TrEMBL record, chains A, B:
Keyword Signal attributed: no
Pathway listed: Cofactor biosynthesis; NAD(+) biosynthesis; nicotinate D-ribonucleotide from nicotinate: step 1/1
GO terms of biological process kind: NAD+ biosynthetic process via the salvage pathway
Catalysed reaction equations from the record: 5-phospho-alpha-D-ribose 1-diphosphate + nicotinate + ATP + H2O = nicotinate beta-D-ribonucleotide + ADP + phosphate + diphosphate
Pfam name, any one: NAPRTase
Keyword vocabulary terms for this entry: Glycosyltransferase, Ligase, Phosphoprotein, Pyridine nucleotide biosynthesis, Transferase
UniProt similarity note: Belongs to the NAPRTase family.
Stretches assigned to the Nicotinate/nicotinamide phosphoribosyltransferase domain: 150-339
EC number: 6.3.4.21
Protein name, entry field: Nicotinate phosphoribosyltransferase
Task performed by this protein: Catalyzes the first step in the biosynthesis of NAD from nicotinic acid, the ATP-dependent synthesis of beta-nicotinate D-ribonucleotide from nicotinate and 5-phospho-D-ribose 1-phosphate.
Length: 465, 465
């Protein structure tokens, strides 16, 4: 399946037909944002932008899409429009890999409303998922500290979504993936060991290890839990490691995939060290996530490399990020979506977001949402609590949204997954620790400029009247 | 991203290199099965087979895959092998859409071990996910009874995994999807209504409804909760419905997307009926799943059509099915994977699975796993409890695994998603109700033939010696 413009919800096309027939010229602004951090965490890592831009530059309806839509009863003149459809709008976005927070725009689309609607589903589909997984990866990185993290989740991923999961995991702090296709396309380090079936096919574990080490001596990792980790797998691995030494080679590691990883890794480390194999690394896998890895670390487990699968690539337990795409301006007029639930009230107009930086260059813990071309702020206001405001005069204000696409074409160079991962790491380092802890993380402040708040409140009152 | 043979884990290719260099001719049998039903349910719906067969018939490494693997240090002669790689093995499978149960083979791959390993990741990736989602859909269908069920989840799906989610949801009992691409490719009914942004773009709700109804009078569903459901949305929809009547048209429905759906749907139904609009359907959406729909039904909610998104397409709360692929035979010799955990011990040899059918043609509640060519069974034995056996003499025994692919080519006609959905429905009707309930469903019995059990136990003892 290739992503074409038909990778959308039917209602986008139905609405497009109505706009086309009744008011085809309306320019719209939509905000992409989410309402709460996944995993009860204190932040998210924004990911997926490069994929979105790559697709948007070339998005069209295929001939089979058009034939299908004709069958669905869309009119001839509208089908002609769809045939010529390209995304010709603009996008302003914060940088991919940045640390982001709820309720403030991460990205804005400004385009003819027909184009803006047709791309909505695709844009949400890619950004919601990659942001979820990059955030999960970042949390696992937080637990693993300097340990090596490998994504091994493709077999449990949501079909081809696993391709994007591997990319997002790398952006969020993983070192590599077992997913060959993703590694190839996104230039992510690729790694792999062996499966139990390999050893089973031999019946003889030692012979299996020997053959493997002979053919693949580089980065050789032996899986030692097929029969009995300490009584069979580890002694056989040591035999092979010594044979490799005699050939001037070094066994890279042994892998544990079952049992008590804390206990087994400590025992394994001690036995390897006694055999003068201090250089042999210990790889562990089996239903790991940020909490299990944290616990393993606390128990002094001797694990150098963590293989993480299901919990990473499915973003468990949340499994989804509820990012939304809300109309904030139409034909130059502000638009708002009301709700009984205050957090669901959207923000009108084209906007900018400023991050507050303290005197040490660290994030102060506040982003301010303003109208697009406002003067620097002296203070920001709480979105709803009129008694709360924050003085910003001592802080540096960094604008976060930048033009990345104009008239359907990129206006910034594309960035590799490595560059984005590096950037993400540098940004996360500026976020104080209290926002990163798993239990009740500190709440990052999102404020509004006085002007934006005033405009929004006037609109709310107007709609209620 | 197109699925090529590089859509796999690196270790499959690494192991393949070792097999290629040391023992390239080993024929292997692998079993696909899972160990426990998702969602604490009593069954699963097997899905994804047609996609697997479609891909396998044409699977190869692309030139860029091969260039990448060369960079990764694989040897020239092995790269030549990969260049010529095709899947030339056989597959025996139960029918897609069938009701399946834990610990028994759903599908067996018989092929050269190199080919069997290279396809493993892809096969698990597609079957695990689609089976998860078809099962979720089936549970939602169980709650919704005769209500119409529409998948609207693409925006919250795991990137392009959403494409396969829409297909699997249809197989599991949904009536249609909003996902245009999936509807087009899999010939699934496609439907859609309108978004809040449509009404917001007008500012004037009545004008928005009027324009929509004029341009799209067929299957017209008006979203009535943008401003105030009962005070604004519903009265405006009624006005438009009457205008449509005067043009000889009929409003298909109104949609509720927030608030108390039980209360609002009953109110809405009564008001529509008072306006002689008994034919106007009520569509509801907003974080629905099998439990919410069950509760709505119990409260007498007046909902004709349920739109289900996130919880369906992400398979929440499980988000994954832990299906595995275990070596059961190599070069004609049985293979077994041991574990301290009895449920993790695999079954050796090529096998067949028989479903027990009672005198009324219903499923009796037992599947028996046998060696491939055994005589009909008179009884089956519990996998581990020697005191438990089941007399089968009064039951019809239906073989479940059939040849679907030989020498890399399909040997059965491909089946459309509609045919599979119909088949699935007919199979589920044969499963007694007690296996379908959400709370502590009855446990379906999986037994072994006496011969298979004897062979397995002998192998276990041999390995422990």
């Amino acid at each position: 399946m290739n992503i074409t413009a038909a990778y959308t919800d039917l209602y986008q096309i139905t609405m497009a037909q109505v706009y086309f027939s009744t008011k085809p010229d309306g320019q719209a602004v939509f905000d992409y944002y989410y309402r709460s951090n996944p995993f009860d965490g204190g932040y998210s890592i924004f990911a997926g932008l490069e994929d979105v831009l790559d697709v948007l530059e070339n998005l069209k309806f295929s001939p089979t899409d058009l034939a299908y839509l004709e069958q669905q009863g869309f009119e001839k003149d509208f089908l002609e429009y769809l045939k010529a459809f390209r995304f010709r709008g603009s996008i302003r976005s914060c940088k991919e890999g940045d640390v982001v927070f709820p309720t403030r725009p991460i990205l804005q689309v400004e385009a003819n409303i027909i184009e803006a609607q047709i791309i909505e589903t695709f844009l949400l589909n890619i950004l919601n998922f990659q942001t979820l997984i990059a955030t999960k990866a970042s949390r696992i990185r937080h637990s693993a500290k300097d340990g090596v993290l490998l994504d091994m989740g493709l077999r449990r991923a949501h079909a081809t979504g696993g391709y994007y999961a591997s990319r997002a995991a790398f952006i969020g702090g993983f070192d590599g993936t077992s997913n060959v296709k993703a590694a190839e396309d996104y230039n992510i380090p690729c790694s792999g060991t062996m499966a139990h079936s390999f050893i089973q096919s031999y019946g003889d574990e030692l012979k299996a290890f020997r053959d493997f080490a002979k053919v693949r001596p580089k980065n050789c990792v032996l899986l030692i839990d097929t029969y009995n980790t300490l009584k069979s797998g580890l002694p056989n691995a040591i035999t092979v490691a010594k044979e490799m030494e005699s050939r001037g080679q070094k066994l890279m590691g042994v892998r544990l995939d079952s049992g008590d990883l804390a206990y087994l890794s400590k025992k394994t480390r001690a036995i390897l060290d006694d055999a003068n194999l201090e250089y042999v690394k210990i790889v562990a896998s089996n239903q790991l996530d940020e909490y299990v890895i944290k616990s393993l670390k606390e128990q002094g487990a001797q694990i150098d490399i963590f293989g993480v699968g299901t919990n990473l690539v499915t973003g468990k337990p949340d499994a989804s990020l509820g990012g939304v795409y809300k109309l904030s301006e139409y034909k130059g007029e502000p638009r708002i979506k009301l709700s009984e639930n205050l957090i669901k009230v959207s923000l009108p107009y084209k906007k900018q977001v400023y991050r507050m930086i303290d005197a040490n260059g660290k994030f102060y813990g506040a982003d301010a949402v303003t109208l697009y071309n406002e003067d620097p702020l002296t203070h920001m206001e709480h979105p709803f609590d009129a008694t709360k405001r924050l003085d910003l005069t001592a802080l540096k204000q960094e604008p976060l949204l930048e033009n990345v696409m104009d008239n359907g074409k990129r206006v910034v160079p594309s960035r590799s997954a490595s560059e984005i991962a590096e950037y993400s790491k540098s940004r996360l380092e500026k976020l104080p620790e209290e926002y990163k802890r798993f239990q009740n993380p500190h709440i990052y402040k999102i404020g509004l400029s006085p002007k934006l708040k005033q405009e929004r409140d006037a609109l709310i009152l107007k709609h209620k009247a």
